[in-house]
């Protein structure tokens, strides 16, 4: 029975959370902004199983129903709507107002910016707090979580691209840097992904918590919107064939042999 430091810090966070428990309605958060319902659902892979993928309609589109809480200003609603709509022009994902669908996103201003990874069943909160989360990149980031994607720095191949500087990370935040057996969709590690945290994320001393390899001067974590790789892997995961370039189609075919693009 082994407990590594990351697991230990995770347990520490859980126990701390239980002691403080400021609001029992708020789910626990792992990786800073990823919500989980229970311990067993930690490290959820990005739709490696079919279960967390949103279903494809017979017209080839993936309709993801949503509702938006009524506590946003019109300016905030505009930014959220722009984020939702941005997926339509580059993928087969169509966020649409919920009518009576069972599974849907409930976009609300709660405590911070967070989302579950993938489809959870029934209503699932995507929290976009009015203070600090109403940005185009943040809306896209949280929606990508809801569609099944994890953070770039937790990718299975991240050690080839960034070095995690464990000693600079806030002690009880180290679990944010645990690797996940992610399904990378044949896409390269992308410093410009909207899912990549910045250089000093969760730093306890202002020093970098991540350093790029091999050139430690490369900038990363500065995305203001989804990168082409973010779009490609979304289209590959959801088999949005008409939105894939010929290069991506190869990955698409490799990944799922029965796919007909
Ligand atoms: Zn996130």
Automatic annotation (TrEMBL):
Q: EC no.?
A: 3.4.24.-
Q: Quick one: which residues bind Zn(2+)?
A: 141, 145, 151
Keyword Transmembrane helix on this protein?
A: no
One Pfam family assigned to this protein is Astacin
UniProt keywords (A-Z) are: Hydrolase, Metal-binding, Metalloprotease, Protease, Signal, Zinc
What's this protein's name? Metalloendopeptidase
**Gene3D superfamilies recorded for this chain?**
Collagenase (Catalytic Domain) (3.40.390.10)
Does the keyword section mention Signal?
yes
Q: What organism is this sequence from?
A: Pygocentrus nattereri
